[in-house]
């Protein structure tokens, strides 16, 4: 979008017709911490760096102090105080003491609901590693879908078909709850339920879930992954242009 603007007619048209907002990272403190050591527990760090909470527990141990909140469990959508896994500060998926307890999630909420973006966004895609899935709302329980789920599913299917047309990655499509199990307090669920954004997705990049330690994408995976992904992203972009008659 940046380097090929004015060179590639298709990209030039995209930028002229649409506004793109790119957030490279939404957990800056966790990201910085994850790069302070090659130890797997540090490199695989998932949460932010919220101050130590000493109500954690493990088998036969209580009142353990642990840092951080899983930001993708901290949104105010079906926030689940009764889920033992999400309520343990020593778990990677600790949801925090209450919805939007963290400055990072509040920043996302406030920006999406602010004057600049409110009612002005049609498509939101959050990229994660890993699993080879295009995830649709809702994910707090199985068999729970927004009213326009078919529209989201149909567009995701078109994008997936475009990605794999030359034998590339075959992305599964559905809710995470249906494919791998429920999770509450997710960003995409809150966004779909509380904003006017119609098309809301999480794309879990390759490799598939059978690969160990794949949250750290290998350097040699980067180019082929994003080359094939760009074909799918253009399907999403073209749909918005057609939908808005731009």
Automatic annotation (TrEMBL):
> What one GO molecular function would you report for this record?
metallocarboxypeptidase activity
Q: Which GO terms describe its biological process?
A: proteolysis
Q: Which Pfam families match?
A: Peptidase_M14 (PF00246)
Among InterPro entries, the record links this protein to: Peptidase_M14
Cellular-component GO terms for this entry: extracellular space
Task: List keywords of the entry alphabetically.
Answer: Carboxypeptidase, Hydrolase, Metal-binding, Metalloprotease, Protease, Signal, Zinc
Residue ranges annotated for the Peptidase M14 domain, each copy included: 1-240
**PROSITE patterns tied to this protein:** PEPTIDASE_M14
Task: Give TM segment ranges.
Answer: none
Q: Where is the active site?
A: 204 (proton donor/acceptor)
Known cofactor(s): Zn(2+)
Keyword Zinc assigned to the entry: answer is yes
Q: Which family does it belong to?
A: Belongs to the peptidase M14 family.
- The protein depicted here goes by the name Peptidase_M14 domain-containing protein
Q: Which organism is it from?
A: Syphacia muris
């Amino acid at each position: 979008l940046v380097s090929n603007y004015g060179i590639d007619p298709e990209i030039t048209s995209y930028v002229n017709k649409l506004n793109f907002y790119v957030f490279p990272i939404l957990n800056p403190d966790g990201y910085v911490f994850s790069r302070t050591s090659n130890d797997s527990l540090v490199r695989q760090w998932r949460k932010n760096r919220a101050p130590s909470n000493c109500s954690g527990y493990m088998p036969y141990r209580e009142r353990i102090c642990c840092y951080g909140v899983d930001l993708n469990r901290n949104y105010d959508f079906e926030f689940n105080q009764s889920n033992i896994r999400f309520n343990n500060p020593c778990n990677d998926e600790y949801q925090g003491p209450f919805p939007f307890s963290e400055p990072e999630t509040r920043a996302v909420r406030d920006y999406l609901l602010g004057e600049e973006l409110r009612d002005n966004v049609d498509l939101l895609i959050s990229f994660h590693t890993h699993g080879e899935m295009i995830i649709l709302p809702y994910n707090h329980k199985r068999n729970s879908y927004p009213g326009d789920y078919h529209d989201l599913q149909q567009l995701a299917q078109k994008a997936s078909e475009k990605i794999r047309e030359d034998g590339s990655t075959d992305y599964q499509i559905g809710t995470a709850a249906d494919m791998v199990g429920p999770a509450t307090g997710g960003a995409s669920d809150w966004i779909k339920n509380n904003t006017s954004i119609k098309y809301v997705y999480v794309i879990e990049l390759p490799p598939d879930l059978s690969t160990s330690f794949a949250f750290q994408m290998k350097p040699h995976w980067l180019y082929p992954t994003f080359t094939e992904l760009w074909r799918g992203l253009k399907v999403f972009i073209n749909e918005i242009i057609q939908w808005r008659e731009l």
